[in-house]
């Protein structure tokens, strides 16, 4: 079966994990700091902290904004469920917004229709790795959370996605452009927010007893006593995950090049398929991360089943949240999201795919519509 998403792990990742395990220090530790510094340098971020998942990073991001309980946060319906869960679990109300049909991204104009006197923030998602048009959204004057789970290597007007709004998040789960198995990251415009995030991720405790004992220069008599600055969930990343991430950072350019090759091949090969709408390219000056290749086609369900019969897995990222029973907002009609729910399909793109597999995907799509 050709999978729709995938990562590429090599000998370096395996060696790093082995070294980490042999060191007997598998939980939070030095590797996390090494990963954080390397990641900051690679993606030109000022403030960055690793956490245990992108979903938890979203919850942390919403909490960091200190909004009044019950605030409304506007976000796309066409996104992963964690975006809405983070808003709800932080005590706020998710307000679902439509996306532009061509970019599949939220826009300032679509957001404007949902602004009320309770609106306190906006959450954008750089869908598939294509940068959201951020400038007009920032001009609306609300705090902005950027979900850059798909967009670790993407840029907007030369700036790394995730670093444009107030708080940005990344995901390093098993199928993301950079994987550590399960993991996430958070970046903030203000330094003091990342300092708070680093305390929050350890249940609101600033320093472990071990740290205090080693670094107190003998001044602290009872190093096992600690200050708790606020109640928060434990979101610590592990040394094992960070050791995988360190090796992934060394190969990220190669991984991204492979994704771009596959993307370019599909863009050229699928041009001949009548009625197939290809995904938008990044605008001049921006960079795409090529996380997802999402086409729009007639007879979408039939195509998905045809591909499956031919050992090619495809899927839809995402079933719009406002159509999900938990979040159903009956008064909302989000026409473009509902259209994407009918005709959009993500087809395989990941760095482990061979040329033969990539060609097979394109050939089978062409065969279906011939
Ligand atoms: C848009 C988006 N946001 C957030 C997440 C959550 O990331 P994680 O899987 O690391 O929790 C995902 C995961 O797929 C995602 O696609």
Structural write-up:
It is built from 12 helices and 11 strands. It is of the alpha/beta class and 370 residues long. The chain has 2 domains: 240 residues, Type I PLP-dependent aspartate aminotransferase-like (Major domain) (Aspartate Aminotransferase, domain 2); 116 residues, Aspartate Aminotransferase, domain 1, CATH 3.90.1150.10. A hairpin with a 2-residue loop joins strand 6 and strand 7. The site of pyridoxal-5'-phosphate (PLP) has 15 residues, from helix 3 and helix 4.
Which short descriptors sum up this protein?
binds pyridoxal-5'-phosphate; 370 residues; Aspartate Aminotransferase, domain 2; seven-stranded mixed sheet; alpha/beta
Question: Taking Cα atoms only, what radius of gyration do you get, to the nearest Å?
Answer: 21 Å
Distance between the termini: 23 Å
CATH class assignment of the largest domain: Alpha Beta
CATH superfamily of the largest domain: Type I PLP-dependent aspartate aminotransferase-like (Major domain)
| Element-level helix/strand string | HHEHEHEHEHEEEEEHHHEHHEH
CATH topology heading of the largest domain: Aspartate Aminotransferase, domain 2
Hetero groups in this structure are: pyridoxal-5'-phosphate
């Amino acid at each position: 079966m050709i999978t729709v998403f995938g990562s590429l792990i090599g000998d370096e990742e395996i060696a790093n994990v082995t070294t980490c395990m042999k060191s007997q220090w598998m939980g939070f530790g030095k590797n996390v700091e090494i990963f954080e510094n390397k990641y900051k340098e690679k993606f030109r971020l000022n403030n960055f902290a690793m956490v245990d998942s992108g979903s938890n990073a979203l919850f942390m991001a919403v909490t960091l904004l200190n909004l009044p309980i019950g605030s409304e946060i506007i976000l796309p319906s066409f996104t992963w469920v964690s975006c809405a869960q983070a808003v709800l679990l932080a005590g706020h109300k998710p307000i679902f917004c439509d996306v532009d049909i061509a970019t599949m991204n939220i826009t300032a104009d679509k957001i404007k229709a949902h602004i009320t006197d309770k609106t306190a923030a906006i959450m954008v998602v750089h869908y598939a790795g294509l940068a959201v048009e951020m400038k007009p959204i920032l001009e609306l004057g609300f705090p902005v959370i950027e979900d850059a789970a798909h967009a670790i290597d993407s840029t907007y007007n030369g700036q790394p996605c995730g670093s444009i709004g107030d708080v940005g998040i990344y995901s390093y789960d098993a199928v993301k452009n950079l994987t550590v198995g399960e993991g996430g990251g958070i970046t903030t415009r203000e330094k003091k927010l990342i300092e708070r995030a680093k305390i929050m991720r350890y249940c609101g405790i600033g320093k472990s007893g071990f740290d205090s004992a080693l670094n107190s220069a003998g001044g602290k008599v009872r190093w096992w006593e600690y200050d708790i600055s606020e109640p928060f969930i434990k979101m610590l990343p592990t040394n094992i995950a960070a050791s995988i991430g360190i090796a992934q950072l060394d190969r990220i350019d190669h991984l991204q090049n492979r994704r771009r090759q596959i993307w370019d091949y599909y863009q050229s090969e699928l041009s001949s398929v009548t009625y197939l709408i290809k995904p938008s390219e990044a605008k001049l000056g921006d960079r795409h991360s090529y996380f997802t290749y999402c086409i729009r086609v007639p007879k979408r369900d039939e195509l998905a089943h045809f591909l499956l019969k031919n050992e090619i897995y495809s899927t839809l990222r995402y079933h719009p949240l406002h159509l999900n029973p938990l979040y159903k907002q009956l008064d909302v009609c989000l026409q473009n999201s509902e259209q994407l729910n009918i005709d959009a399909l993500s087809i395989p793109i990941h760095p482990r795919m061979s040329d033969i597999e990539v060609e097979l995907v394109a050939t089978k799509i062409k065969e279906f519509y011939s």
